[in-house]
Amino acid sequence: MSARNLRYMQKFASEFDNDEFLQGVLAKLPWNHNQVLLDKIKDKEIRKWYAKESIKNHA
After folding, report:
1. pTM for this predicted structure
2. If we measure between CA atoms, which residue out of 52, 33, 54, 50 comes closest to residue 12?
3. Neighbours of 16 (CB within 10 A)
4. Cβ–Cβ contacts within 10 Å for residue 31, how many?
């Protein structure tokens, strides 16, 4: 496992700690899609919207 991937995992865990959204939506997205969302969208609520839309439109 790369150091870069570990940093993504750490960021992901801190952003969605105890978040029901993680189980309902983010778990359905491919890991690289979640990485892109973390990189490109800083606002958590906007990131959630994009994740929901991705699932709705079959990411």
Report:
1. 0.76
2. 33
3. 19
4. 12
Residues 32 and 38: their CA atoms lie apart, in Å, by 10
Q: Which domain holds residue 41?
A: 3-56
pLDDT tens across 7-51, in order? Answer: 988 988 888 777 677 778 888 999 999 999 999 999 989 998 999
Specify the pLDDT at position 5: 86
Single-letter amino acid, residue 16: F
Instruction: Domain count for the chain, please give it.
Output: 1
Helices (H), 1-59: 3-15, 20-24, 31-40, 44-56
